[in-house]
Amino acid sequence: MRKILRELRREFPDVEMRTTGSNRYRIILPNGRSVIVSNKPGCQSLMRNVRADVRRQMKEEPR
């Protein structure tokens, strides 16, 4: 999971990452929206899905 977080920080440097109480990560975007990421390193498509979710949420207008 550390590798995934490192890649996300490199690709999206202006986001903030926090851990939640249920062993997940919350990625807080500059526009106020957030994306929840599972802490499941065995999933092959996790990184691709997270990138798509972050890009999708960044396109939307701020709340």
Helix content: 25-40%
Please tell me what the overall shape is: globular
Largest sheet: 3 strands, antiparallel
Uncertain segments of ≥5 residues (pLDDT<50)? none
C-alpha Rg (nearest Å): 11 Å
Share of β-strand residues: 15-25%
Query: For the residues shown, what is the average pLDDT?
Result: 82
* Helix and strand run: HEEEH
Strand order, main sheet: write it out.
1-2-3
Count the helices. How many?
A: 2
Derived from helix and strand composition plus strand pairing, the structural class reads: alpha+beta
End-to-end Cα distance, whole Å, is 29 Å
Kindly describe this structure.
Helix content is 38%, strand content 22%. By secondary structure, it is of the alpha+beta class. A three-stranded antiparallel beta sheet has the order 1-2-3, with helices on one face. A hairpin with a 4-residue loop joins strand 1 and strand 2. The mean pLDDT is 82.
